[in-house]
Amino acid sequence: MFTLPKSLDEPVISLLATLNDGRKFPVINFGTYQITGRSTILKVIDAALKAGYRGIDTAAVYRNEADIGHALKELLPKYNLRREDIYITSKLAPSDHGSEERVTKAVHSSLQNLDISYLDLYLIHWPAAQGISPADPSNSTIRSKTWETLSKLHDNGNGVLKSIGVSNYTAEHIKQLLETSSVIPAVNQVEFHPHWQQTEELHSICEEHKILLQAYSSLGGTSNKSLLKDPVVERIAKKTGLSPAQVLLRWALQRNYAIVPKSVTPERIENNADLNEALSDEEMSELNNIGLKKKYAWNPDVVR
User: What does pTM read for this prediction?
Assistant: First the structure.
């Protein structure tokens, strides 16, 4: 968990959270979902590093790991950065759940694609295994086996996975994990925005175990603009001089969520990192009380 300080002497883009395993992790990571093509990846990673991002979020299912690895190889010297200055996150595909051999192969495939010797964070992308009904109770057993293998590859931070976590896990999924393992996830990456503020149960269990919550779809998803055009968001944006995107991202930070904004536009990439202007208690309350309960991504509640 992290708590956003009331006042900062440094840009928020430079802020690091301390994970429950003791490792540091950027509060703002650059998201790469649906960003593909070597030239496009090179352009956006260049813009992200220039804007101060030091965390890059990818996944096996994004099919862009190799291009990200190529871009970092070319761009790190440009910004006088070393591998250890960058935090790279990837995720296990649902098709790779289960056996130790399959999970290990998937991890090493990501390492090879990214052309790196370790991952700073590796997440189980989805709580269900591909090819099995979400309602099938065997998903719980499969998740447990997957987590056991990741724990070995983590090896208390001495392995190829420096931190491990989960994504799209409900409170129930986390409870099940904790019943079978002493290794606590460092991060749970979930959909979170004013239209879908997660459950008190999830917040409670993550706070209890110091699991960092990381928000994806902070702006409502790729094709859905209803969140950006929400009257409350637009009113606060006009009042503060911030963009609607900046309002939503700053709101998430003040709710003590890490964020993973993404864009292919250099100007927006920069603006999404410029989040030092605080929202007032009144503005936070307005956003907190929008009252909708609407998901724009996937629904992990259906997974047993």
Answer: 0.97
